[in-house]
Design goal:
The complex is a heterodimer of chains A (about 120) and B (about 110). Chain A has about 120 residues and is mostly beta strands. Chain A has strands at about 5, 10-15, 20-25, 30-40, 45-50, 55-60, 65-70, 75-80, 85-95, 105, 110-115. In chain A, strand 4 (about 30-40) and strand 5 form a beta hairpin. Chain A is globular. Chain A starts with a strand and ends with a strand. The mean pLDDT of chain B is about 90. The chains are: A mainly beta (about 120), B mainly beta (about 110).
């Protein structure tokens, strides 16, 4: 069974500082990996995804993530935080071959951006 | 642009009422999912469906049922609403052929049971 661990349920960063959100997965084979963002009282929106092409993946709003097979990690970064980045972020994995491609989600990390 | 539409953003119902949450997608996706989201508990899968008239239990199906009579529509039913079902409900859909697409989510329905 797959699992996803997001280190830190809350992260506080200053505006303009680096945003780093950590995600580790457990899976017998490298899965598909995703980062979603959720703004208050909204659904989840896809930020970026890794589907076994380039290991460094660029997404929307200046975010990127790097897949590291040896570390079973898929950490999300943004060089310079903006106030609009305040949201909750979810890492998710999907097995490459599975009926219905069910995603397994991490517990989420809430980002607070300080002026 | 592809869309998953949930019929209500906010809903207030009384204990014991039968509640219907509707979800419609316009992407011709085979798979549809219902999650509930609670603080500190993340997203928990209630039910999902691979095809019309097919349904599978997720991690927390108790107190819920679902209906999928048409490919584009997936309904979540609370047979007798209780206060512990107060939550944010999220619908999602995906293509069946590959896991590479991920999910497309609706905007969510915040249900309060009083």
């Amino acid at each position: 069974a797959q699992s996803v661990t997001q280190l830190g349920s809350h992260v506080s960063v200053s505006e303009g500082a680096l945003v780093l959100l950590r995600c580790n997965y457990s899976s017998s084979v490298p899965p598909y990996l995703f980062w979603y963002v959720q703004y208050p009282n909204q659904g989840l929106q896809l930020l970026l995804k890794y589907t076994s092409a380039a290991t460094l993946v660029k997404g929307i709003n200046g975010f990127e993530a790097e897949f590291k097979k040896s570390e079973t990690s898929f950490h999300l970064t943004k060089p310079s935080a903006h106030m609009s980045d305040a949201a909750e972020y979810f890492c998710a994995v999907s097995p490459i071959k599975a009926a219905g491609n069910k995603l397994t989600f991490g517990g989420g990390t809430r980002v607070l951006v300080k002026p | 642009d592809v869309k998953v539409t949930q019929s209500s953003r906010y809903l207030v119902k009384r204990t014991g009422e039968k509640v219907f949450l509707e979800c419609v997608q316009d992407m011709d996706h085979e798979n549809m999912f219902w999650y509930r989201q609670d603080p500190g508990l993340g997203l928990r899968l209630i039910y999902f469906s691979y095809d019309v008239k097919m349904k599978e239990k997720g991690d927390i199906p108790e107190g819920y049922s679902v209906s999928r009579e048409k490919k584009e529509r997936f309904s979540l039913i609370l047979e007798s609403a209780s206060t512990n079902q107060t939550s944010m409900y999220l619908c999602a859909s995906s293509l069946s052929a590959s896991g590479a697409g991920g999910y497309t989510f609706g905007s969510g329905t915040r249900l309060t049971v009083v």
